[in-house]
């Protein structure tokens, strides 16, 4: 769908057919109806419904006869905010479940969604929210019915699975993965000699407050006040005016491999319940130790003390102390990186994930 997002470019190894949606007629009836007609012309055996926000439940319902497999990439449908964040006012949304059937809960989620200022910076997402009337009780009913109509729902972590199980008993946790063969070209991490700076890498959208950029800045400022034997690489667009920081901008796949190769430690300081945390998996595939927040999918992706080190989310002092541990014990970083690479090969390589999970599901 050409809505300035979700575009596919280049050769992906299979045929891709786009569905042009007229912007002026972008609503539930016309949009879902158009997609349904195009899918019906194709007459598939199964339908895979992956990306999508507020129109996703209506697409599931319209294509229910094809036994759709539904993949959640974040907490979409479970949270009313952009991408499904389960995070508001600087804290996790504990004790709030959008689908609990309570009117008061729905009012809280509706106010949170409509008050999300980031929507103003994303016209296509705001357009979808308005077109689907995602603040309405009808939309909540469509979500519940859509989850029940799916043949299988795939999620990244136990929190999402717990919320969906009341509506669909075949809800499975299947991780994302990487092509570990591409990351194998990165040399193994040797112990960084004393005197050489340790290079920290923070890949991802640290411009987004939920990714923990402010916490990382605080932690590195604390460290820099005591010692100057580290550097920080950032893949964010806006500059970070610190003597230890180097902004790389947003990187393509090959340039990102180069960044991992330059690094000695990868940092994932998210403060929200990260659904999965692909950064941690990429770091492990590259043979780099991970320092990550013990929250969401990161808490299970990274094995604390074996492939990386976990810290409490939002705790700059703890993050600084953990990073300092790796600055002082550089052999530990090399050991964690080697164990992480083995874990990535065993559990997060796409070929292995397909053989273990998808071959049975789609067979």
Report what the structure shows.
With 363 residues, the protein is an alpha/beta fold. It folds into two domains: 151 residues, no CATH class; 170 residues, 3-Layer(aba) Sandwich (Rossmann fold). The protein is 41% helix and 11% strand. The chain has 14 helices and twelve strands. It has a six-stranded parallel β-sheet, with helices on both faces.
In short:
It is built from 14 helices and 12 strands. By secondary structure, it is of the alpha/beta class. It is globular.
Write the layout of secondary structure elements.
Layout lengths: L27 H15 L5 E2 L6 H7 L6 E3 L15 E2 L2 E2 L10 H12 L8 H10 L4 H13 L2 E4 L2 H7 L6 E3 L6 H4 L14 E5 L10 H14 L3 E5 L10 E3 L5 H10 L2 E4 L9 H8 L4 E4 L4 H4 L6 E4 L4 H13 L1 H18 L2 H13 L1
Parallel strand pairs: 1-2, 2-5, 5-6, 7-8, 7-10, 8-9, 10-11, 11-12
Antiparallel strand pairs: 3-4
Helix pairs in contact: 2-5, 8-12, 10-13, 12-13
